[in-house]
Amino acid sequence: MIRRLPPEVAVRIAAGEVIERPFSAVKELLENALDAGARRVTIALISGGAGSLVVEDDGGGIPPEELPLAVERYATSKISEENDLLALRTLGFRGEALASLGAVGRMEIRSRVPGTPEGAFLRLEGGIVVGQGVIPCAPGTRIQVDDLFFNVPARRKFLKGAPAETRRVVGVARDYALAYPAVAFLVLSEGKKIFSSSGEGDRQALLRQLWGSEPETRFAAVHVNSVRLEAFYQPSSGGSAPHLTAFVNGRRFFDPLLRAALASVPGSGGGEWFLSLAVPPGELDVNIHPAKVEVRFRCSRDVFDALREGAKELLADPPTIPLPGKREGPFVTPPIASLPFRPAAMTFDRVASSKMDEGSVPPQEYRDPDALPSPVGHPSDLRDPNEECRYLGQMVAGFLIFEDSHGLIIMDPHAAHERVRYEALGEERGEGAVQTLAWPLPLPPSLGLRVTPLENPLQNLGFLLEEREGGWSLKGFPVHPRVTPPPPLDFLRRVVDSLEREEASPLEILWRTWASLACAGAVKLGESMDAAEARALWRHLQQCAHPEACPHGRPTLLRLETTSLTRHFRR
Asked: Which carries the bigger pLDDT value, residue 403 or residue 158?
């Protein structure tokens, strides 16, 4: 039987589409503040915004008589007729944000129109007005939401911890600060300032604040027909994925078109990207997602071409930057294990191969057979343990060929060495160690912002971090005896990337990072190997628990049975 949903159920469903987490609530309120002409926006959080979030601005305010209407669904000052949707020039327009917040939290709005003697307030709980009246307040609007999702426990239990939710809110504020450099933003968490921008209108200065000044930020401006692009890029020496922030007509958005355009340019690796697109309002459809995070371009070809040309210009003739794997700055002087650490049960259980990531460190030389890690030791005898197995040679393509009584065996030496190194790493159980640095390495500001909410798990893993007035510094980092460490900041960045992206425990993420780096040091396909090295690799692979595939799932061996060969040659 088909029934109409009760209004209180319908509004909570709609609210769940618009308000997903505290950061999406902040985004909606922040966009309303910008539409109101705010020059200063303050965001205050308790428990990552789940306990309480406040967004206060100095914009145009809401007249007292309009406050009850402002919290009704589909009530907005941004549009008045259908044709307005074809040429939107504001960030908000659907009239759902305040109604949605009032439906899933305890919300209070205080607002005063500049030039009027007093303001007004309105309180809602679960979508029901519980109080309103006159109140003295500063010009502008202050919205506070307490106990977000208090009446939607199924949604509340999916919220992450306070540090993760705080990090997302800071990301929203940071991105909008870049898009609106003439607006001053301030973010407070538990009363502590964790982000601020001056609002002086200098985007280059703000980029230096967020990204650091080394290496120098690059800028490109591109026009393709009606599309205008301003692009900023700062390369990174690490192997992490590019960090991409994109706005179109002042609206933050995500679109596969962006990454596709960047990926089409050779050499477009990691680093910081900020892209600001301007297109005619009639060429952009922003009404395709309840949370307004997706857009549709009528001129998608021009957008792609502009992004591609901008990336090519930014990546052309790049200045010299530290190469992945080269030690940057003051590296290790004190001995390894100068400070032992004991995160809970430092044991290395095997990780499913589907969860492994490729690493990015320079290959280690594979010239000494005894240097090959072996889960069961390093036998000095290089003869095959299986007398029937004979090494025949190496193909031009780099594959190794063996023969036993059943036929030919072709080995991928890179995949085989990855498996050997991976399982050898898993045999190491016990304490990790911290490698201290000769003197602290300052973190780039953008990395420091990401480290702030992750300070405790990173410290527990062995990253020695110190926060001073000038920002964060790295004084030491965890090491593994079987893994050649990459540059310290690159290693920290890789771990931070995984902590932000994955649900696993910090200790498991650290182990995966080590395992990924160990795999990356494997011999490369095509490198010349002599017979002793080939036989040693064969022996070590046979001692593995899972010799049939590398940790990423690629096969290590291909067998051609003698019976198949005789059938093929009709013998």
From this structure: 403
Give the single-character DSSP code of 304.
H
Reported as a single tens digit per residue, the pLDDT across 286-334 is 766 666 667 788 888 899 999 999 988 888 764 433 323 333 343 333 3
CA-based angle 134:44:119, to the nearest 5? 15
Quote the Cα angle for 341-436-336, to 5°.
70
Q: At what angle do helices 506-520 and 413-426 cross, to 10 degrees?
A: 140
CA 365, 367, 371, 372 torsion: positive or negative?
Answer: positive
DSSP 120-173: EEEEEETTEEEEEEEE---SEEEEEEESTTTT-HHHHTT---HHHHHHHHHHHH
Report DSSP letters for 53-76, one per residue.
EEEEE-S----GGGHHHHTSTT--
Helix (H) or strand (E) holding 383: none
**Amino acid type, 437:** L
- Token code pair at residue 276: 């600001």
Q: What is the pLDDT of residues 477-532, one digit of tens each?
A: 888 877 777 788 888 888 888 887 776 778 878 877 877 777 777 788 878 888 88
Question: Would you call 387 helix, strand, or coil by DSSP?
Answer: coil
Q: What are phi and psi of 70, to 5 degrees?
A: -65, -25
Of the two residues 267 and 455, the one the predictor is more confident about is: 455
pLDDT given for residue 326 in this prediction: 34
Backbone angles phi, psi at 382, to 5 degrees: -90, 5
Amino acid identity of 482? Answer: R
Q: pLDDT tens, 435-486? A: 888 888 888 777 887 887 788 888 888 899 988 766 788 998 888 877 777 7
Closest CA relative to residue 168, chosen from 19, 16, 27 = 27
Which of 508, 485, 518, 545 lies closest to 345 in space, CA to CA? 508
Q: Measured between alpha carbons, how far is 292 from 18 in angstroms, rounded to an integer?
A: 8
Could you tell me the strand order of the sheet in which 557-561 lies? 390-394, 400-404, 407-411, 557-561
* Structure-token pair, residue 88: 């939107």
Q: Is-contact 361 517, C-beta < 8 A?
A: yes
Among 464, 468, 521, 514, smallest CA distance to 494 is for: 514
Phi, psi of 476 (to 5 degrees): -175, 165
Name residue 190's amino acid: E
The alpha carbon of 308 is separated from its chain's Cα centroid by a whole number of angstroms, namely 22
Cβ(458)–Cβ(451) below 8 Å: yes
Q: Cβ atoms within 10 A of the Cβ of 9, count?
A: 10
Q: Decide: 273 and 262 in contact? Cβ < 8 Å.
A: yes
The answer to whether 144 and 107 are in contact (CB under 8 A) is yes
- Cα separations in angstroms, 259 against 174, 338, 415, 476, 494: 21, 43, 29, 34, 20
- The sheet that has 106-112: what strands, in order across it? 128-135, 119-125, 106-112, 140-146, 52-57, 40-46, 184-189, 192-196
Highest mean pLDDT among 87-101, 243-257, 260-274, 285-299: 243-257
